[in-house]
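The protein record quoted for completeness.
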Amino acid sequence: MDTKKLDAALIELVEKRIQLSGMSYSDERYDELEEQLHDLEDEFIDQYGDYLETALEKVHDTHDMDSDVLLPTAYLAQKYNKVGQHPDGRPIYDVDQKEGVWVETDKFPGKEARLVLIPSPTRFVLSVGKHREEVWKI
C-alpha cells in the first residue's frame, strides 16, 4: 500500500469538503463541486476501501466496539480545521470532538464515543468527551 498516495487522496477529499462547506447552495458552482466530491469519494473507496476497512475492523476489535464497520468515507468529518503545516508543506488537520461516527464501545460504557478519519497523517481518532485517542495511523 502506498501510504503517501492514500494520504494525498484523503487530503484532496478533505480540501474539497472544506471548499464545498464554504459555499452556499445557491452558488452556481455548488452542484458541480458536490459531484466532484462524490466522484473523489468513490475513487477513494475503490483504491483504499479494503485497506481502511481492515484497519477499521482491527480498531473495532481492539476497542470492543459493538457498532458495525462502515465504509471509510462514513468516518469523514463534516468540518476539518487546518491547525498547522508539516515541514514538507502538507497541512495539519484537526476536528471538533463531536465529529465522526457514533460508536458503541465497552471501554467507555454509557458515554458518547465518536470515530473520525483525519489526514496528514491518515489516522482514526476516537473521541469520548474530552478524551481523544489516536487508535490507528498509517
User: Anything to note?
Assistant: Residues 3-137 form one domain. The chain has a mean pLDDT of 95.
